[in-house]
TrEMBL record:
It comes from Empedobacter tilapiae. GO terms for cellular component: cytosol. Keywords: Cytoplasm, FAD, Flavoprotein, NAD, tRNA processing. Residues 547-618 form the tRNA uridine 5-carboxymethylaminomethyl modification enzyme C-terminal subdomain domain. One of its GO terms (biological process) is tRNA wobble uridine modification. HAMAP family: MnmG_GidA. This is tRNA uridine 5-carboxymethylaminomethyl modification enzyme MnmG. The keyword Ion transport does not apply.
Amino acid sequence: MFQSEYDVIVVGGGHAGAEATAAAANLGAKTLLVTMNLQTIGQMSCNPAMGGIAKGQIVREIDALGGYSGIITDKTAIQFKMLNQSKGPAMWSPRAQSDRMRFAEEWRLSLERTENVDFFQDMVKNLIIENGKVCGVITAMGMKIRSKSVVLTNGTFLNGLIHIGEKQFGGGRMGESAAFGITEQLVDLGFEAGRMKTGTPPRVDGRSIDYTKMVEQPGDENPSKFSYTNTPKLTKQRSCWITYTNQEVHDLLREGFDRSPMFNGTIKSTGPRYCPSIEDKINRFADKDRHQIFAEPEGWHTMEFYINGFSTSLPDDIQARALRSVPGFENAKILRPGYAIEYDYFPPTQLKHTLETKLIDNLYCAGQINGTTGYEEAASQGLMAGINAVLKIQGKNPFILNRNEAYIGVLIDDLITKGTEEPYRMFTSRAEYRILLRQDNADERLTRKSFELGLASEDRLRRMEEKFDKAEKLVNYFEENSIKPQEINDVIEEREGTPLKQPNKMISVISRPELKLSDFTKLDRVKEFIETNEYDQEELEQTEIQIKYKGYIKKEQQNADKLHRLENLKIPADIDYNVFGSMSIEARQKLTKIKPATVAQASRISGVSPADISVLLIYMGR
Ligand code: FAD
């Protein structure tokens, strides 16, 4: 059935697998996506939303690199919000609610439109391994398909076990079977495997919700979007709704604790700390008398609602009784109960920066299988694994992003250097240089790199260059032109600033904290300049960021450059740490296990002290 050898086989069509497939195929590799169900490519297992704090930046980075997640989100969004707009632009984070069904459909259509992609619906049970190198896969139906590399993106499916109260059954997601075989084979080959847990809330019939008891949460008035390409902006949106739990709800939930797999010891693995279940929340924060619940529509044309904040694996009768005590849900009809799922993952310290495994050549792992949680984290790893799988078979240098270049760089470096004992999700606080890693400049940081790889189109590169050229031109305009006190003092006084006494260069006045660029674009001559040069909103925002944050950006860039020097100090691959008697035993063990590629990476391993790094530097003649 499969006569020829593929360049890349991607196992699993979730967010990681879909991006890996797109990247590999767009780099010219003959790519096969083998997934258990062709109907669920790009399926959102949990929340129908992309982005959010730090995650939104990742989607922008994926987009700048030529991935599809941002484009698909824009095409299927039903609501858009730029979060954190009251804070500085380094913290702005785009988030969109998506139409769940349209999102998966659009992923499938996008991959079908991509050259070099073949599809096959089956479960991969085993890998073909020859001389320490992966050479293809064997499926449950017994197909042997050969390839030069394999990307594993099995998500929550490996030996997946679903829990609802005392009920337990095998599954990779509700209504879908679990996957078997791969864990056992990899463990036999010497890999370490672990178990993690995640959970999801009930879904409710929107016709049974009383919205008058909730507070409406509309989308942004002027919605932005994810992709730097010309995807459409939303012209209409659907609202979400907020309500709160109360003491009665908490008491009802507590009644189910002794039947809860979380508390009676049935679930032993660790769940995502920052997406706790409702039972976890009322247990851990017993002094809080209420928790926020969001009712989020699942699409344009469905009555199904996702009940964000009410993730639970309590028995279904308890779920229903407790939910019906939340204002607005008194008559709620539950369409699908919440549940928890346990699944296998492989500690990511077993991977290189390219996401290739250290043990088996040309075998890559991306997504939840690496211990992460979240669509964005998964998609970005899939993209990077897909790119690197192709670069390796083409005999080219790997594509690695540094921590000062992208959240994706931070994510992968954290995973392979520190590992993770609980589902890893991205936060802005994980990035040392978050003023550099903004959602507005992901294109500036990454598009040229992607173009040079052959992934981002020339059109993308041209758009990016035009945006930054225009911002520079406007900055120059403000540097060259002055403003008179009478033109701006009314605004300054209204905002309680110190009025100007004499004409000043516009640039130094815009930099004042009480003023905004929009205060200047109202002036006739500035307005004329902007209209003549056809500035759009994004270009104006970019100009403002460059003016207002110039000092911070410069300082952070200097710090990043310092780190980069250590990043360039490569450690020889055959180094034997055991000979360093003056290094701590813990450092020797960890360095031997993780095999850091650079001195900077070594310095980030927990348990490796600055003194240990000095020993290493002396050995390297520094
Ligand atoms: P998945 O999206 O799980 O996709 C895996 C794909 O691989 C599937 O298409 C599957 O069919 C296929 N597959 C698996 N094994 C094989 C095989 N052997 N052969 C062929 N195909 C195979 N994330 C959050 O950020 N917050 C949450 O609160 C949250 N809650 C969740 C709750 C539940 C119940 C679940 C299931 C997931 C939850 N997630 C949550 C996680 C989120 O869904 C994942 O992080 C994301 O989908 C991971 O993407 P992935 O591509 O790694 O895997």
